[in-house]
Amino acid sequence: MNNRLFKRLSTITIFLFIINVGVVLFFLIKFEDNVIAEGIVDMIGVSKLTPIIEELFVATGVLIATGLLSIIFLLAAERYKSSSEEIIIEQFSGGVKSTNASEEQVAPELSASENTAFKGLFGFIESNDGAWDKTKVQDLLTKVCNEVDAVQGAIYQTKLAEEKRIIELYAAYAFSIPDSQVMSFEFGEGIAGQVAKEKKVVKIDQVPEGYLLVRSGLGEVSPTSLAIFPILDQEQQTIGVVEIASFHSLPAVEVQTIEEIFNKVGEELFSISE
């Protein structure tokens, strides 16, 4: 179930709950009059029922209050999550952010394609000669993650859904969702969607605990660093997004190299449909 469908179902459920609250209150208020009108009991009998009716009001009130508090907490949690995410995007969306100033000085002097540590990756790209399919895209993502010691990675493909541009999960490495589940974001939604919209690399070195999870048979742990790259075609339009997560901050030269790799393959990456 994707985010948009979940939000719609939540909205409908909340709306139905509010309607039901109104219906219950209406019947409780009219209960005493209805009992008399139907001749079930007389005025004396109604006075004996009053304590029971009051207890029913209290129990119903507690139930309604609990439900409303649950809705308020749910909305507050979603609002907090969204605001936290927006702060992160605002802080890092200006470009690549690194905590090591010396790396920023060295990286521009080094050509990523000449970095011997990545020659195997560039060789793999050249050997494909533009003939990419989903399996080879998956292999490329795996090789990139292994090269930079990343613990998680994802490639999203740009699609059009209901006249809206979205990015949809295309390939993943150690991702914590089943293959059958579809994950997608609208342009501007979440950090990945923001990268797709702004076409800028985002690097975050202090990922909040629990924001990402890597699971194994022994447990789960949260990566601390996240780098997100747009994939652009020859017309500089976003055709995809790449996410790389790790337990260490990616050096600027690795960020530069990953960006160059996906700029190199560009629109060839999705040239063959599934």
Strand content: 15-25%
User: What separation lies between the terminal Cα atoms?
Assistant: 21 Å
| Number of domain modules | 2
CATH architecture of the largest domain: 2-Layer Sandwich
Looking at CATH, the homologous superfamily of the largest domain is GAF domain
Strand order of the largest sheet: 3-2-1-8-7-4
Rg to the nearest angstrom? 27 Å
Largest sheet, in brief, is:
6 strands, antiparallel
Please report the number of helical segments. Answer: 7
Account of the 3D structure:
This protein has 274 residues and is an alpha+beta fold. It is built from seven helices and eight strands; from the N terminus they run αααααβββαβββββα. The strands form two sheets. The protein has a six-stranded antiparallel sheet, sandwiched between helices. A two-stranded antiparallel sheet has the order 5-6. Helix 1 packs antiparallel against helix 2 and helix 4 packs antiparallel against helix 5. The radius of gyration is 27 Å and the shape is elongated.
